[in-house]
């Protein structure tokens, strides 16, 4: 009796020349949309007829990225092919994934497309890949929130903060900027040191160190990249109405402009973008928005800078 070749495998072999798919495991601490910088969507198309659900955009609930599935040949355009997507979904299930996210861009997911600061996956521009993901459980989210709260409670200056101080969002950004590792013996020392740099007892003076979260989205005639999230520290200097912002840790970012009556205007450079921008500033938060044309499309985004204010003694 002749051995029968499964229809799905036959289709994939015909279309790909029996080129094997490749699974690349993602390592490091920045692997979660909840504890790292992977973006969440507000709703997207999901196909449920495969071994695991197939998302055509970023999921709307917290997830952990396990790895990337691709073909070694970057020219294989399999985004519309059900046979190849079926094989990718089956491979993801084999890796204990709950779903896959189809992305078109560099395999660094995955860098320009998916938004990982220091992508550990290397690939080609415009390559279609599938990110294998696992849902983050409510227990994991509770564990994360409990650990953040425990770190905050140990801060010596906590009692001196104003009740309205954004300590929880700032603390979460600090932990993410450090590369969250719950098993690190030095986590609190690093956390405390970095948080200490972000406090000020001079609400009328913006000078000092701030933490920032930058989000940009790029679009071309062929694709929409989704949000690219970056976190870093920046030093602000003011001289009259002139204000300068220069990154001091994490992603490179710089701003030069003016501030008047709470309004900010100037030029910003971040993530290989250089453009005009404007925004608003308060004592403990600065929001800057930008939008610009690129050689192959558009880019838009914003930068949120925060610090913590202490009550006068």
Helix content: 10-25%
Give the averaged pLDDT, no decimals: 83
Shape: globular
The domain count comes to 2
- Portion of residues in beta strands equals 35-45%
Give a structural overview:
This protein has 313 residues and is α+β, with helices and mostly antiparallel strands. The protein folds into two domains: 7-136, no CATH class; 138-313, Beta Barrel (Lipocalin). The protein contains five helices and 16 strands. The protein has helices at 7-16, 82-94, 138-153, 167-178, 187-196, and strands spanning 22-25, 46-47, 54-55, 63-70, 99-104, 128-135, 199-200, 208-220, 224-239, 242-250, 253-260, 263-270, 273-281, 285-294, 297-306, 308-309. An eight-stranded antiparallel beta barrel has the order 8-9-10-11-12-13-14-15. A six-stranded mixed β-sheet has the order 1-4-6-5-3-2, covered by helices on one side. A hairpin with a 3-residue loop joins strand 13 (273-281) and strand 14.
In short:
The protein has 313 residues and is α+β, with helices and mostly antiparallel strands.
List the SSEs and their pairings.
Blueprint (H helix, E strand, L loop, with lengths): L6 H10 L5 E4 L20 E2 L6 E2 L7 E8 L11 H13 L4 E6 L23 E8 L2 H16 L13 H12 L8 H10 L2 E2 L7 E13 L3 E16 L2 E9 L2 E8 L2 E8 L2 E9 L3 E10 L2 E10 L1 E2 L4
Parallel strand pairs: 3-5, 7-16
Antiparallel strand pairs: 1-4, 2-3, 4-6, 5-6, 8-9, 8-15, 9-10, 10-11, 11-12, 12-13, 13-14, 14-15
């Amino acid at each position: 009796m002749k051995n029968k070749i499964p229809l799905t495998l036959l289709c994939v072999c015909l279309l790909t020349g029996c080129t094997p798919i490749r699974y690349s495991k993602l390592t490091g601490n920045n692997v979660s949309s909840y504890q790292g910088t992977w973006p969440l969507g507000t709703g997207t198309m999901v196909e449920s007829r495969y071994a695991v659900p197939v998302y055509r955009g970023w999921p709307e609930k917290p997830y952990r990225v396990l790895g990337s599935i691709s073909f070694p040949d970057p020219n294989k355009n399999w985004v519309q092919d059900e046979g190849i997507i079926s094989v990718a979904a089956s491979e993801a299930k084999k890796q204990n994934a709950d779903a896959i996210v189809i992305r078109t861009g560099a395999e660094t997911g995955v860098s320009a497309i998916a938004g990982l600061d220091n992508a550990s996956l290397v690939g080609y521009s415009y390559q279609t890949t599938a990110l294998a993901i696992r849902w983050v459980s409510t227990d994991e989210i509770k564990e994360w929130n409990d650990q953040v709260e425990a770190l905050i409670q140990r801060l010596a200056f906590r009692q001196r903060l104003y009740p309205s101080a954004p300590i929880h969002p700032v603390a979460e950004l600090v932990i993410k900027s450090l590369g969250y590792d719950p098993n690190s013996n030095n986590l609190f020392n690093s956390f405390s040191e970095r948080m200490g740099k972000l406090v000020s007892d001079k609400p009328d003076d913006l000078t000092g160190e701030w933490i920032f979260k930058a989000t940009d989205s790029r679009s071309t005639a062929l694709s929409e990249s989704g949000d690219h999230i970056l976190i870093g520290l920046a030093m602000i200097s003011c001289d009259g109405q002139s204000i300068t912002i220069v990154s001091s840790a994490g992603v490179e970012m710089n701003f030069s402009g003016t501030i008047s009556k709470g309004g900010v205007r100037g030029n910003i450079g971040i993530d290989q973008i250089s453009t005009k921008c404007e925004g608003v500033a308060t004592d403990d938060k600065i929001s800057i928005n930008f939008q610009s044309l690129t050689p192959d499309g558009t880019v838009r985004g914003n930068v949120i800078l925060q610090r913590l204010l202490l009550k006068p003694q």
